[in-house]
Design goal:
39% of the residues lie in helices and 10% in strands. The protein contains 19 helices and eleven strands. Helix 4 packs parallel to helix 5 (126-135). The longest helix has 18 residues, at 14-31.
Amino acid sequence: MKLFNFVLATTGPTLTNLKILSRYAYTATRHMTPRKLVNMARVEWARFRGSEKVGGFPYVLKIESTNVCNQRCPFCLDRDRSKIDDDGRGFGKMHLDCFKRIIDIMAPTTLRLNLYGSGEPVLYPDIYEMIRYAADRNIGVTISANLSVFKKENAEKLVQSGLEHLIVSCHGASPETYDKYNVGGDFHKTQENMRAICDAKKRLGSRLPFVDWQFLRFSHNQHEIPKAREMAKEIGVNMIRFINPNIPPEHKEEWRPRRDDEVADANRGEGAVDASPGVHISEADQAVARGERIADDKNRPKADVNTCSWLYRSIFFNWDAGILPCCDGTTEPSHDLAKFTGQTRQEFAEFWNGELYRKLRNYANFRVPREEMDKTYTCAKCIKPHMPFILYERGFQLPKKFEKRLLQTEPDLDAQRQRWVEGKDSRSKHVIGDL
């Protein structure tokens, strides 16, 4: 396992990934204190060792202010939003008092707050008070918004709220391409509102928030990348990023952006795109990882895998105070690990290192056979704890310490590899399409 492991949720060209990490680095330097530094070191040491217990608190919080959204993006984590209302969590917004209590408990060791989830944060006026409350407690605050229902007369209010980083989800450089993914949005309003916020920053002489246009790259909008760059420059945003989203298997043929030389052209030298978040494979061997080519046993392709860092660095609070290990599985309350009811810091520490979290960290560190993973929890259905097993099955050579651990966990893995070669059979069938 690498000492420095910063795995992003989406894949993108190398320079784009560095741009994302630069914002976390900025937050860390701006809000670091001796106590936060010690906490971060303890967390990273536990992650590096793959420990069940963590000697520190999560230093990146994700809090869902609301799951109500004006758009119906096809591949949103909660894309089947009827389930939310019919037999799931329901729609709503976090009570301000609950939000403040979470911040009070977590602020001493928190560097960054991602104040968004499945909804549109700017729909409710409380968002400005939430941002200010966290910012006043030395936490860098980020929101991700589509801005198509944002009122541009609130631009100065947003700039003065203490917001550090604004991610704008606008996935096209024309109404035609935008409408295909940002279903229910308004391309022209989104552009106007981005401009209004950038202009408000100039009027107020403020460097923040850092305005970050996020452009999900698909086959239908990839040709607009050069146009989007020019538009971003003209509007005055600080950065535009082109990233590959996680596309459901049944839609990959239609939506997946072009690869190889075509992607390289579109990236304009920004670097190659990894096969999947946290997986490092040469471009030539990515076809083996996807199951499109059988590996040569005599010259096994090499791969490296980063373990999930969410269970060490981060935690997710739903709008109704349900707690999840990450932002996946937010639709169903049955996935929650617990409920935040105003626990003390000591009570949270006991939960953070309790039996359930220790079990999930063993999943993340490949110490539990796939067949024994409890699918009640999203970690068991996530691709990350399955990835090294899948790659080993497909003939990849992994770092020796990983291979040793995998074979201790599933001693019949070599026989499983043969089953893959003969019949494309894997124990990880339920997540295989996410590779």
